[in-house]
């Protein structure tokens, strides 16, 4: 009996710690100011003028149902002529059913030069003021990027806007909107069978997801924000990874999730073998530098243009990646 108790005690301790962490997050969320739908009370770090500017950009870009498409760019090099941003926009222009979506795309940049570059290419740009940042250069590590993105998305939800978030290195070959069902809080292509997410060639996410603005989704993103505050040194996780690992929180909040077939939303990391006629979006992840990323993204768009030029849309493979290798 003693041996049995000693074996169970570590599991009991881990369970107790998990429950305690969740309870702390809930208490911190409840102690925050209640959301007012369109009051924008979440991000107190924003000045009133900056918050109003975001509201104006979202209002101009939103669809009839209050949905916007959002992307964030934290590397100024991505916004330079001929770089990632230009290719990202080109994919919308030549994609199937995607050109009209450019009117609903909001590009969020960090830094004045990136903002200026964005304005030269697109009408709906917003310059992000880093949350909680001090004067001086901002360290562009993954933790800073993830936190700033999460805080921005929380503010957008709190303002009453639903969104499709996409990384800027995702090529939109076809519109994924046809797969989004409004009854779910979250729609995401996610590889639920990925066991080793630490291996970058096995990342479960696809750089794309939809979130519906309502009380449930706002509480989820509040939880993610508080969790990052309580555990600042924890491993940075994508939304896909977080959803997989925090099922207890998902069930507690009652979050309804629609998982899309991840094989139709490809990425270089995953080494997807789908033909280009079957892929909706394709992300240039697993690239060591921006030059390699741009090179392989150009191959993707060239292959897509060649495919669309065929009279009968015959089967064509994908050349990329050649420099971005998992």
Automatic annotation (TrEMBL):
Record has Transmembrane helix as a keyword: yes
Keywords: Membrane, Transmembrane, Transmembrane helix
Transmembrane segments: 12-29
Domain named Nucleotide-diphospho-sugar transferase: residues: 101-297
Signal peptide start and end residues: none
Origin: domain of life: Eukaryota
Protein name stated in the entry: Nucleotide-diphospho-sugar transferase domain-containing protein
Species name: Morus notabilis
Organism lineage string: Eukaryota, Viridiplantae, Streptophyta, Embryophyta, Tracheophyta
């Amino acid at each position: 009996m003693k041996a049995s108790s000693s074996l169970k005690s570590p599991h009991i301790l881990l369970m107790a710690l998990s429950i305690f962490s969740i309870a702390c997050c809930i208490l911190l969320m409840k102690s925050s100011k209640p959301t007012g739908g369109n009051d924008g009370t979440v991000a107190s770090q924003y000045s009133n003028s900056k918050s109003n500017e975001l509201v104006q950009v979202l209002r101009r870009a939103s669809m009839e149902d209050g949905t916007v498409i959002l992307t964030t760019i934290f590397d100024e090099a991505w916004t330079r002529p001929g770089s990632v941003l230009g290719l990202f926009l080109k994919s919308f222009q030549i994609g199937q059913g995607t050109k009209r979506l450019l009117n609903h795309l909001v590009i969020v940049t960090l830094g004045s030069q990136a903002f200026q570059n964005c304005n030269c290419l697109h009408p709906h740009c917003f310059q992000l003021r880093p949350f909680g940042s001090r004067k001086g250069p901002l360290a562009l590590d993954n933790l800073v990027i993830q936190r700033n993105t999460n805080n921005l998305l929380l503010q957008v939800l709190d303002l009453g806007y639903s969104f499709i978030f996409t990384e800027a290195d995702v090529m939109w070959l076809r519109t994924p909107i046809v797969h989004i069902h409004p009854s779910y809080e979250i729609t995401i292509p996610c590889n639920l069978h990925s066991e080793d997410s630490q291996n970058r060639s096995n990342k479960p996410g696809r750089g794309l997801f939809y979130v519906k603005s309502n009380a449930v989704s706002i509480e989820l993103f509040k939880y993610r924000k508080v969790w990052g505050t309580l555990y600042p040194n924890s491993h940075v996780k994508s939304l896909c990874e977080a959803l997989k690992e925090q099922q207890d929180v998902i069930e507690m909040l009652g979050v309804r999730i629609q998982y899309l077939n991840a094989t139709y939303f490809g990425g270089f990391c995953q080494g997807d073998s789908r033909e280009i006629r079957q892929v909706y979006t394709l992300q240039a992840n697993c690239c060591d530098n921006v030059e390699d990323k741009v090179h392989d993204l150009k191959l993707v768009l060239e292959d897509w243009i060649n495919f669309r030029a065929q009279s009968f849309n015959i089967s064509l493979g994908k050349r990329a990646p050649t420099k971005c290798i998992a």
